[in-house]
């Protein structure tokens, strides 16, 4: 099982305990951008109109990505990995460069509900199962959206602004 290194050591130990006889390996992603690209990436979104930023964005996304497993830099394939735990750390660029290095991959489990960036890279590759957490966040998202609806309909931001100015005016609901 290949697990990104942002998970703590305790998590890896727990996985090894739950799956005896399984090798749990720690994946580290090394991302390198030149200083010029990092600076342009930082300032361009703030300085240029969106149309200009959108045109130069592909050039600003270029980065050198390398991987290490259990602290050892990997130049070629990571042949023993059959399972990959995907997390927020694996964006489209990283997935595009990582998956070809995993020839024996059989299963990717994503801790995120959105897996479009993985599906697009997996197209044309048979025998790899992709699972995710499904609708585990559905109730929480529904509650959040409902609270936003109430906030807007009851004009909460306006009430807070009035309170800060020490003005006690009753505003009608929208």
Primary descriptors:
3-stranded parallel beta sheet; 4-stranded mixed beta sheet; alpha/beta; 174 residues
Walkthrough of the structure:
The protein is an alpha/beta fold and 174 residues long. 42% of the residues lie in helices and 18% in strands. It is built from 7 helices and 7 strands, in the order βαβααβββαβαβαα. The protein has a 4-stranded mixed sheet with strand order 1-2-3-4, covered by helices on one side. Strands 5-6-7 form a 3-stranded parallel sheet, with no helix packed on it. It is extended.
Explain briefly what this protein structure is:
This protein is an alpha/beta fold and 174 residues long.
The number of E-state strands comes to 7
- Portion of residues in beta strands equals 15-25%
Estimate the mean pLDDT confidence.
84
What kind of oligomer do you see? Answer: single chain
Uncertain segments of ≥5 residues (pLDDT<50)? none
Number of helices: 7
- The neighbouring-strand order within the major sheet is 1-2-3-4
Describe the secondary-structure layout:
Layout: E1 2-4, H1 9-18, E2 25-32, H2 35-47, H3 50-60, E3 64-69, E4 72-74, E5 83-86, H4 92-98, E6 107-110, H5 116-122, E7 129-132, H6 138-153, H7 156-164
Parallel strand pairs: 1-2, 5-6, 6-7
Antiparallel strand pairs: 2-3, 3-4
